[in-house]
Amino acid sequence: MLLDVEHLNVFYDKAMLLNDINMGVDTGELVSLVGPNGAGKSTLLRAVTGLVARDREISKRSTGGDVVLQGLIRFENIQIQNIHAHEIVKMGLVHCPERRRPFREMTVRDNLLAGAYLIKDRDKTMSNLAKVYDLFPVLKGRGSQISGTLSGGEQQMLAIGRALMTEPRLLCIDEPSTGLAPILRAEVFEKISEVSRLGITVLLVEQEVGAVFAMSSRNYVLSSGRIIAEGTGEKLLKDEVIRKTYLGL
Q1: Average pLDDT value for residue range 73-88
Q2: pTM listed for this prediction
Q3: Phi, psi of 28 (to 5 degrees)
Q4: Which of 156-170, 202-216, 232-246 has the lowest mean pLDDT?
Q5: DSSP reduced 3-state for 19
Q6: Which of 1, 106, 111, 238 has the lowest tally of Cβ within 10 angstroms?
Q7: Total domain count for the chain?
Q8: What CATH number does the domain containing 44 carry?
Q9: Residue 87: alpha-carbon gap to chain centroid
C-alpha cells in the first residue's frame, strides 16, 4: 500500500473533524474522496500531506487553541503523521490545493518552475517542464502570461502542472472543479484521468460524483468526519441509501 491511514482522528480545539478514519491508496490507483460539504474531505487531505501539523503550530501561536491529530499515516511504510509538510513533499506526496492558488503576479512559466524548487537538477526541471507542456498545451502557449489573468480552468491546469513539477509519487488534488463551468470541469477531469494514465497515483477530493466515479479505481464516502462507505462507483451507486442520502443523487 502506497498510502495507509489507520484510526485517524483530528480535533480543532474540542471539535472532532475526523473520526477513526481507515483508508488506503495503492500504487497506480486513482482514488476519490466524496461526500457532502463539511464532511471532512479537505481536512483528511490536509492531514495526509502534513498541513494539519502546520495548522497545529499556527493555531498555538495565534490563538492559543489546539489542533490534535491522532492515529497513523504511512507513506511507503514510513510514518509521516508528525513530519513537516515540506519533508513530505520531498518524499513524493504532493498536495494540489482547492481554489488553485497560483502566484498571481508571476508568469505561467515561473509558476511552474516554482513547483520544482526542491529539484536541484536543471536538466530534470526542464524535462519536467516539457512534460507538463505536453500534458497542458494551453500552458505552453501562455508561458509568458501573468497567471492571475488566466481563466479558472487554465488556473486549475496550472495548479496541477505546478504540482507535477515536483515529480509526485502520490498527487492529492482538492476540489478541482470548484467554480468552473461544466465544459471546463469536463476538460479538467479528462486531464486528471490522463495524469493517472501516465502512471501517477492520484487521491482526488471532489463533489462531482458522476464524473469521479467514471474515472476512479475506488471511492471513499465521507459524512460528518467518518467514512461510511467504500467501493467502486458501480457498487456505491447501487446502494440507494448511499446514493440518495450521502451523494445527493
Answers
A1: 94
A2: 0.92
A3: 90, -10
A4: 232-246
A5: strand
A6: 238
A7: 1
A8: 3.40.50.300
A9: 17
